[in-house]
Design goal:
Elements lengths: L3 E7 L2 H17 L4 E7 L2 H4 L16 H8 L5 E5 L11 E6 L7 E5 L13 E4 L2 H10 L4 E4 L4 H9 L5 E5 H6 L8 E2 L14 E6 L3 H8 L4 H17 L7 E8 L2 E9 L6 E9 L6 H22 L1
Parallel strand pairs: 1-2, 1-3, 6-7, 6-8
Antiparallel strand pairs: 3-10, 4-10, 5-8, 5-9, 11-12, 12-13
Helix pairs in contact: 8-9
């Protein structure tokens, strides 16, 4: 019987906080197993000045961790699900996800700026094309500026005058105990989140049945179904993690409601639609909605985005 499992994660404060949440859940169900955490630096952590949008589809924040998993240097990999490319790595699989935290995007403004529900003419920073395009849709006169770094670094840059505010995952701020810094939370009608946003994923080797069984013991089924639908939507659109595509699925009275958006980089062109299916028959929901939105003009928008 396994008595020690090595868990691999990025070494950022957020990643370590997320990993602690995972290991606490695993420990509560498997107290006889020692879960040892191994911190791993990824290219995304090292190349802080590299443009993120040209690299994340190649596993910018996960590749080194996955390589360690394939080489059996670790037994489980912990990821923010939205960082994982939708195309699986042969030999690896997502074996569990935790219950989703708040999936919304949050606005953090410099305390010196009074928020009056209008961001036009302010300089707002993000590293996400999806956030940029949906913000420009809401506020055409907003000034967008790219920003990199972990959560604390971004907040520090903002406070030193780099920008007036930043857009960041609400879940990240809450996990770090920084929820008091949130100026505004965008609801699903204003800004649709990235597929998988707010979800912590556990990846393991397909061949390790024992590890998979242990990992699957903390899987949250409703979250798993919803994020799988979102990721199938993204995969069908061939958008990758950097395209201005949003998708959010939720369970409503034994049905699954999926809402998606495809938008141009400048936010001037966008298509939003939604689809509903029975909870027990929702496996094709993401693919079907993606097909419809491609036919409704999404294909043209994505062709322009790809250049």
């Amino acid at each position: 019987m396994t008595n020690k499992i090595i868990v691999g994660t990025r070494d950022s404060k957020l990643a370590l906080t997320q990993t602690q949440k995972v290991t606490q859940k695993l420990n509560s169900l498997h107290p006889h197993i020692q879960f040892e955490v191994l911190n791993i630096k990824t290219k995304g952590d090292i190349l802080q000045d590299h443009p993120i949008e040209s690299s994340i589809d190649k596993g910018f924040f996960v590749k080194e961790i996955q390589e360690m998993l394939l080489k059996k240097k670790i037994d489980i990999a912990i990821h923010s699900l939205k960082d994982l490319p939708v195309d699986p790595i042969p030999g690896l699989e997502i074996s569990a996800v935790l219950e989703r935290d708040d999936p919304r995007d949050a606005l953090v403004l410099n305390p010196k700026i009074q928020f009056n529900n209008d961001l036009n003419n302010l300089t707002i920073s993000t590293s996400s094309n999806r956030r940029k395009s949906q913000l420009l849709k809401l506020y055409p006169e907003i000034k967008m500026k790219t920003i990199r770094g972990n959560v604390d670094t971004r907040i520090d840059k903002m406070e030193k005058g780099y920008c007036d505010g930043i857009i960041i995952s609400a879940a990240a701020l809450i996990r770090l105990g920084l929820q008091d810094r949130i100026t505004y939370l965008f609801d699903n009608e204003e800004m649709i989140c990235a597929p998988g946003q707010g979800t912590i994923a556990l990846e393991s080797r397909e061949e390790d049945k024992g590890i998979k069984k242990i990992v699957n013991s903390i899987n949250h089924k409703k979250t798993s179904i919803c994020v799988e639908i979102e990721r199938s939507f993204l995969k069908k659109l061939e958008g990758g993690c950097t395209a201005p595509i949003g998708a959010y699925a939720k369970v409503v009275e034994n049905k699954v409601l999926l809402k998606g958006i495809i938008s141009s980089l400048n936010g001037k062109k966008h298509i939003t639609n939604q689809a509903l299916s029975e909870y027990t028959n929702s496996n094709k929901l993401g693919i079907e909605l993606a097909k419809k939105m491609l036919l409704d003009g999404g294909d043209e928008i994505l062709s322009e985005v790809r250049g």
